[in-house]
């Protein structure tokens, strides 16, 4: 009983101290953006999480923009004071001031699980890593070296997981495709059993990636940490085996092992492992969401399916690099799916200096957030923003700068954008050449935890072409 009383009093004292600190901070900075820092410790994290789980992450932002009548507002997430900088203007400021007045920041769970890699590094270290990885992911490299491997993996996936099936659960099936392709191009893995083992661990890692970093048995972070160690151990074995082998493969691992940076230095094994883990996440789960939502939209809009199908009529089963460049309308459909359901709802930065923005003062050290979801659903940028309309992305029009940001922007724009585009186009070509499909659950709910996920896996009923 005494122990319970002691911890209750201690909790109250901590809450009072935090409240006093917040009040003092407000008094010292009277020109902070409008908003609320919420409850001590948790801030507004629960409201943010609730909106995401409900499948409407932009609602958290939209309600506050309306309430405070401002595109800039303060909040508190995951124990951090945070300013949301909304719309194209906010995106432009954050993307244009990377390494000047802002720098990348990630929640503690992400930093602890990923470790030092391109996503978490800053300054020259990040620049050198980005240049090294980007050399592998250029359109020229794909056109000359990797497209045949990608097509082979895609064809095999269709034969194994789609052919002969009356019904397919799209999301888990697409995750098999993207993860298998990433493992093949990044590490040269071909064994299905080995890839399946990694995929199982990867799903646990992903669940712990955006979580409270409480390392207690049973928590998502604890399970994610165990899975991360297991994945990294497995990848490290692959790295060491490759170093001791004379075999040369056309994959990212070989590129990272054999290519020095501009200083003449090679990546260490641990940094290679961390970057492969990061790229498996970036090149697998995010693309799975985009492909799944594209398939969903085509099922809901037969008129758009017909236009996509027509675009693919003159392209044979074996796809060449030149064929992929013709799939412009298909990519417009995918971009509209990305606009309506961005795989990553936004991103974090940290203020390196005191910032003056929009007439407000943002203190050094505060965290900043840009919102893809909120920008993409802004009716002043996209009229009838809730409607699915691929014509927004036709070449003659196209979105204005900083209004379409599913891949981020500025110096930290996603290096795997071209990889994502190609794996999506290859799969969509093979599907529309073979099937139509109908949604089994037309009203299926989409939840964000941490990325958009159909709660029943998006089952579809396949209708093969005669």
From TrEMBL:
It is a single-pass membrane protein. Coiled coil: none annotated. CDD domains: CYP90-like. Gene3D superfamilies: Cytochrome P450 (1.10.630.10). GO terms for cellular component: membrane. InterPro entries: Cyt_P450 (IPR001128), Cyt_P450_E_grp-I (IPR002401), Cyt_P450_sf (IPR036396). It is found in: Membrane. The keyword Membrane applies. Its cofactor is heme. One of its GO terms (biological process) is terpenoid biosynthetic process. The keyword Lyase does not apply. GO terms for molecular function: heme binding; iron ion binding; oxidoreductase activity, acting on paired donors, with incorporation or reduction of molecular oxygen, reduced flavin or flavoprotein as one donor, and incorporation of one atom of oxygen. Heme binds at residue 414. Keywords: Heme, Iron, Membrane, Metal-binding, Oxidoreductase, Transmembrane, Transmembrane helix. PANTHER family: BETA-AMYRIN 28-OXIDASE-LIKE, CYTOCHROME P450 26. Belongs to the cytochrome P450 family. This is Uncharacterized protein.
